[in-house]
């Protein structure tokens, strides 16, 4: 199952702006239910948001007699996909059926002592995987859009390897030219034939629009939402800040579909259909040891998403996944915690069932080791596009 490589769509995907560019092609209209551009809690530090979940975890650990019970929720993933998981290893759990929905990819271990040899090896692996430029490069280990970049040519890939930590693994993946992106959170209890899509989050790439007068810097600083995220956008687009965009010309501020990197998340649960759920039932049953997690997908348009067709999986995330619709600016803090408590209650239940079937979860020491390594390596990744 190959994604379309239409030249015009690729041009739309790899460039932040040009005269004929359109924004949010294929996505439902980006509408707000309230006057808020950003929810007051939307960019709180993660440890603040998750403090109540920490205490819920302790309570559930006492009830289920084990701190690491949730790690058994996905027996096929390293530590259930909590920390230190490999994107490549997650992909490799997919069987022949599920694999056809995953965007083609390959992986390379970076050797900074011989970047040219690493780039040459990458070219060989890309050819075997059916990849051609432009592609996406991203860390094999990491979350929240760390180190994701569009690579347009071999010279750029060489630069990426130069900036990437030595002996760490890079994923090279087909650039899917469809702009629409969603996070689809799927849950299925062991022994059940049908699961549920617990959350569907629409991920909008943020834009500002030219007026023929103001520079990009001014447009960003004046925008109700982008103006509150200048620490993300001004550095990323430093080479364009003095440009004046034509009237109505869009400029994309973020490519990676990560909330912490500037993407706009909206609650898309209204788009969940029987057809979409059936499609993910079939995919998830063909992923070894997977019951709980989120798929990051690109899709052609709203209609194809609802039908469960013309979609490509770009990442499979385990138990660390969020029901990301909670970061919709129209959400309330009550809704955030109602969703998170439901999510983690279910996580413990699934983990307990798999534990009763004999699965041995990892240890607290392994969690700490994985977290420390993930944080340490993550600080060395290249900037996200």
UniProtKB/TrEMBL annotation:
GO MF annotation, one: metal ion binding
SUPFAM superfamilies: Glutathione synthetase ATP-binding domain-like (SSF56059)
Domain of life: Bacteria
Keyword DNA-binding: no
UniProt-recorded name of the protein: ATP-grasp domain-containing protein
Transmembrane segments: 38-59
Protein keywords: ATP-binding, Membrane, Nucleotide-binding, Transmembrane, Transmembrane helix
Domain ATP-grasp positions: 107-342
